Amino acid sequence: MSLQEFYEWARSLWTVWIFVVFIGIVAWSFWPKNKAKLEEYGNIPLKDD
After folding, report:
1. What crossing angle do the helices spanning 14-30 and 3-12 adopt, rounded to 10°?
2. Residue 1: which residues within 8 A CB-CB, separation 6 or more?
3. Which pTM value belongs to this model?
């Protein structure tokens, strides 16, 4: 397999790559260890200075 063939193969699967990245971000955001930090970030607009 040449580099050009690999490039064409990888380019045809860009939707799959983006979907995998999206699932990774969602899994990271719902990970129990990150819950407190992300809830704090979500409350930033509600804080009164």
Report:
1. 60
2. 9
3. 0.58
